[in-house]
Amino acid sequence: MTERYVMSIDQGTTSTRCILFDHGGRLVSVAQREHKQHFPKPGWVEHDAVEIWRNLERIAPEALAQAGATPAQVAAIGIANQRETTVLWDRRTGTPIGRAVVWQDTRTDALIEELAQERNAGIVAERSGLPLATYFSAPRIRWMLDHDPGLRERAERGEVLFGTMESWLIWNLTGGLDGGIHVTDVTNASRTLLMDLNSLAWDDELLAFFGIPRAMMPEIRSSTETYGVARRVIPNVHIGAALGDQQAALFGQTCFSPGEAKCTYGTGGFLLMNTGNEPVRSSNGLLTTVGYKIAGEPAVYALEGSIAITGALVQWFRDGLGLISSAPEIETLARTVDDNGGCYIVPAFSGLFAPHWRSEARGIIVGLTSYITKGHLARAVLEATGWQTREVVDAMNRDSGLSLKELKVDGGMTADHLLMQFIADVLNVPAVRPMVVETVSLGAAYAAGLAVGYWADLEGLRRNWHRAARWVPSMDPERRASEYDNWQRAVERTFDWIKPGSR
Q1: Coil, strand or helix: which one is 142?
Q2: What is the rounded CA–CA span in Å between residue 45 and residue 267?
Q3: Which residues contact 373 (CB under 8 A, 6 or more apart)?
Q4: In the β-sheet with 261-265, what is the strand arrangement from edge to edge?
């Protein structure tokens, strides 16, 4: 019998990947292409949406060719995408209106301050579960409408479409100008500040608050359902799933029960915990978001803690300080000492994310004495990721009323055994890494395969999950408490560094 596969498209911040997975959840082939990062002004980050689409046109056939497969052997396509990045395009020409504004972009700072003064600003967090912040899509849409003459009027007439990256790719795959489908899924919609978390629908009051015409918004669909059939690139294949990248990783790590959590360690860290079928409102600086929704079933919600700087601190240690020549060397250097020597590094390079959300904070190194060597600094760099994870997990446990029993980990930093052991130690729960580390892509594939019956149910997906490594806590409880207290005091010293009106 001819082998069949599921194709996963992972449209990320720096590149787009296309991966084929087989029925056992094994990676069969992968093709990848980077796209250019545009920084036209300080704090501005942009992507060319056409370049990203062109890259997909190239890499999808490459992935098929590597596997010796044809489009007829692809059971379904699943898409995972960088979240919050905002694309506007002309419905009649298919041309993007300017470049896409990326999730890292902070040009809407002043707009956020202005909106926060509005009398009814409280409805944003109340309805969407998210704080009013530059991180999310709605302020970017508003900024684009305000800064392009005539664009708002065109949007009101339905001539301009908005989407995050999965919407842009699905519209193009399903025909573009020739009948392209304009949809998004609930996980991406939940990151816009415009969706009501309970009804899972665009909220008229939120649209009015941000001044965004409903006519430009995509239809909100489940994460796992057949949206349509591709007519371009991989013709006649069902598009069966779309999820924001971190929700896709939650799905790929098979965190299907309340209390199960994963953390993806890359440039930053993204920790999501499944909280079940009711949204849990955070009072501890976390984001309430949709984890996933299978067609015909209730939505599954999640709490999310975003850590701005994890792997980026290792990159700074390498490129900014020149103390190592490659990222893996940091573990070797850190192992030259037994502890951090009393030194702590808090990497608030552009403020602190969860659970603090202090945009004025700046990074510090504390506890320096003449005893400190570069080995101690290397250990402090790794420990910063562990302690930031601990802060987020503590907040999740308090908000959810659940107690984390184990943390599933993925991402490039999980290759560092010293760091993974430290994370297990400071959380006092095991850290577990799966065999397939491409959990974002795997999650999109699982969701798409589920939609078309390639995989029967969630339990079948659980059976596909296999452990590659497990780290068990071994730190003395008194040392853990003492070190955490030191870390918290170090964090407090980063606050109030940037005064209002200064940069």
Answers
A1: helix
A2: 16
A3: 336, 337, 341
A4: 287-292, 300-307, 269-276, 261-265, 407-410, 431-434, 467-471
H or E element that contains 187? helix 186-189
**Predicted model pTM:** 0.89
What tokens does 372 get? 């400190």
Q: What are phi and psi of 488, to 5 degrees?
A: -65, -35
Residues in CB range of 128: below 8 A, 6 or more apart = 190, 192, 193, 194, 195, 196, 197, 203, 206
Calculate the CA dihedral of residues 275, 281, 283, 286 and round it to 10 degrees.
60
Tell me the three state secondary structure of residue 206: helix
* 2 exposure class (CB count in 10 Å sphere: 0-12, 13-18, 19+): exposed
- pLDDT one digit per residue (tens) for the chain, 503 residues: 578 999 999 998 888 999 999 998 889 999 999 998 888 887 788 999 999 999 999 999 999 999 999 999 999 999 999 999 999 999 999 999 999 998 888 888 889 889 999 999 999 999 999 988 888 999 999 999 999 889 999 999 999 999 999 999 999 999 998 899 999 999 999 999 999 999 999 999 999 999 999 999 999 999 999 999 999 999 999 999 999 999 999 999 999 999 999 999 988 899 999 999 989 998 888 999 999 999 999 999 999 998 888 888 998 899 888 998 988 999 999 999 999 999 999 998 877 888 887 877 889 999 999 999 999 999 999 999 999 999 999 999 999 888 899 999 998 889 999 999 999 999 999 999 998 888 999 999 999 999 999 998 898 899 888 889 999 999 999 999 999 999 999 999 998 877 655 55
Burial class (CB within 10 angstroms; exposed 0-12, middle 13-18, buried 19+) of 62: middle
As given in the structure block, the two tokens for residue 130 are 């998210």
Instruction: State both tokens at 458.
Output: 């969630």
Gyration radius of the chain's alpha carbons: 22
Residues 301/289, Cβ–Cβ less than 8 Å: yes
Q: Supply 444's token pair.
A: 């999109």
Q: If you search the block for the tokens 């955490």, which residue do you land on?
A: 484
DSSP 8-state secondary structure symbol assigned to residue 342? T
